[in-house]
Amino acid sequence: MYIIKLMICLLTTNQHMWIEKFKLCGGKLQSPITISSFKSIAVPLPALEIIGYHNYLPGKLQLRNNGHSVTMSIESNPSNKHLPCVFGAALPVNQEYEVDHLHFHWGAKNNRGSEHILNGVRYPMEMHIVHRNKAYLNLSDALNYEDGLVVLGIFFQLQEEDNRFLYPILNDIIDVQWLNKGTKLNIPITLASLLPHNTDIFYTYKGSLTTPPCNEVVTWIIFSAPVPISLVQLNKFRSLFNGDDVLTDNYRKLQDIGLRKVYIRRLNSYLITKHNGTIVNATNLDWFWH
Questions:
Q1: First vs last Cα of the chain: how many Å apart?
Q2: Between 18 and 278, whose confidence is greater?
Q3: Which of 17, 34, 78, 257 is least enclosed by beta carbons within 10 angstroms?
Q4: What angle do CA 240, 149, 5 make, to 5 degrees?
């Protein structure tokens, strides 16, 4: 895929040079950002509806080390007509977004790794589940439209015990230790198993890809509740190589939030009364301060 190929040679250490080849990386809607619950606007948004997340992903799943991250994607196949998708939340009404791939960002130390910062906390890892608007043919096509992508951001928090739901990925991760190595997952997996238990509360804002070409076409949905991971499991990600060195600290530096608003989904009687007893849909949201 176009975006994956670009990530191979554009590593985190070259971030200051991205704008030379990719002008969009200097835009005003760039990601990631720091998120504060106190500065976010609480609104009674609809729930994020997930379809097919509890089913085993169809077809053959490909795990790959592209030099910037490890990605899991579904091999293109005409029989994959019903891929998992999302809608609702703060997304455009009557539009569905189909899963394309997921990837991870992690740090060399336990106090860094996530791309977004939440309430002053930088988690040791963050996973992005990338979805394409079904109105567009493919990921490359979707990059040309401001409503092209939705990315779910999931934080990981260290705990002593393994997260068994990560076994399907981590059991095969040694096979992609080296740059450009790929392998098929041997154990079936569901996307629901990778989500936090509580998906009711999330933050959402308008942003960009966090790697070149940095297209500002992403509606971000960041869950407040983290997912557990053990140190042993996290170190398996840290054992990967990018061709020159160990693959770690593959997160982008924080970007200026500018005039953007960040919304947080909350449902309580006060907020619902404030909004005349209705759930707020995306058509009524103003994403920028004036």
A1: 37
A2: 18
A3: 78
A4: 40
Continuous segment of H or E residues that includes residue 17: none
Q: Return the residue matching tokens 């590593």.
A: 11
- For residue 220, the SS3 value is strand
CB 91 within 8 A of CB 131: no
Residue 176 dihedral angles phi and psi, to the nearest 5°: -120, 30
Q: Which of 71-85, 99-113, 225-239 has the lowest mean pLDDT?
A: 71-85
Q: Which amino acid is at 69?
A: S
Nearest to 222 by CA among 73, 97, 54, 35: 35
Quickly list DSSP for 183-234: EE-SS---SGGGS-S--S-EEEEEE--SSTT--S-EEEEEESS-EEEEHHHH
Give every CB contact of residue 225 below 8 A, 6+ residues apart in sequence: 196, 197, 198, 199, 201
Number of CB atoms found within 10 A of residue 244's CB:
10
Task: Indicate the DSSP class of residue 24.
Answer: G
- Asked whether 251 and 113 are in contact (CB, 8 A), the reply is yes
Q: What is the pLDDT of residue 1?
A: 42
| Report field, pTM of the whole predicted structure over 0.90 | yes
Q: What residue spans of the chain are helical by DSSP H?
A: 2-9, 18-21, 139-142, 167-170, 231-238, 269-274
- Token code pair at residue 10: 């554009």
The encoded tokens of residue 289 equal 């301060």
Q: Which residues are catalytic?
A: 68
Residue tagged 């998992």 (tokens): 84
Degrees, nearest 5: CA angle 68-163-254: 40
Question: Stretch 229-258: mean pLDDT, rounded?
Answer: 97
- pLDDT digits over 99-142, tens only? 999 999 999 999 999 999 999 999 999 999 999 999 999 999 99
Give the whole-angstrom CA distance, residue 258 versus residue 26: 12
Q: Per the structure block, which two tokens stand in for 196?
A: 């936090």
Cβ atoms of 132 and 276 within 8 Å: the answer is no
